[in-house]
Amino acid sequence: MIHLLTIDWLLMLEKLILIxxxxxxxxxxxxxxxxAERKIAAxxxxxxxxxxxxxxxxxxxxxDGGKLFFKEEIIPSSSNKILFILGPSLAMLTAMMTCAxxxxxxxxxxxNKTIPLQIADVNIGILYVFAVVxxxxxxxxxxxxxxxxxxSLLAALRGASQVISYxxxxxxxxxxxxxxxxxxxxxTIVEQQVTSHWNIWYQPLGFLIFFVxxxxxxxxxxxxxxxxxxxxxxxYHQEYSSMKLGFYLFAEYVNMFISSAIMATLYFGGxxxxxxxxxxxxxxxxxxxxxxxxxxxxxxxxxIFTFMWIRWTVPRFRYDQLMTLGWKKLIPLALANMLxxxxxxxxxxx
Length: 350
Prior knowledge:
mainly alpha, 11 helices, single chain, 2 strands, 67% helix
């Protein structure tokens, strides 16, 4: 019994260390995504961008974070104070929870132990992601309503209806992928692509629908109707300041990072290295896991760059155009893709 308890404590310690590393890494990526966004915007607009804090402005995210941290904390007197604090906390919590089922690479072998680079390999991993992402809209809704500001409330309603609309098309697009993989486990989906071909070759339309819906889920341009400055002053976080505002802003970038990781996992092989036979290089040991993690991060970085590229090149939709695209274009396309995929799978198994 004592031996079993010791093993459980060691396993718990491993998981806690892995959680701490992934959480800190996600926050670091989110922090420097703000720097990358400003630099990319400056490049596209023929400007210099941040260049004062450190060499090439590399310390600018630390300066921005310090400014938010030390700014005065203001809670409007007419707001619901408990919910006002709960809103940004919930948005940040749900953003961080989605990284729990992402397989970051193959297993590490340290101290005669096998350490999986995944917090939890649950057999319904993608359903967990959808469930947690669905909860994220409550952070927007609660923050907008608790502010007792008509612009914030209108922005929160926009955000909620947008997420509901585009989650349907995203879910249907994934059903088509599920027909091919036969598994909801992200680790299993990646392993299938390692031994075969990436799912992007089988589901190009499904990926396109999933990507557009991911833009909408992350409130990124051209789907940032809940933050439209020209119509809503600032959006659902108009009354927020200090780190409460920072939580909302950070949650958006963490969501962008995790959305990129999910898309790379589902459609681009995750940690699979292109044109490289992992099975023939098992003698590489831990170097193979490190190479897979680096390749995974390169894929994620390409997606993050695409998110930013779209922001600075595509104008914002009108709200009626946003709803029309979601309900009248993407959902019928996703349904057609699902039916065609089902027919092909049925024909192949005859």
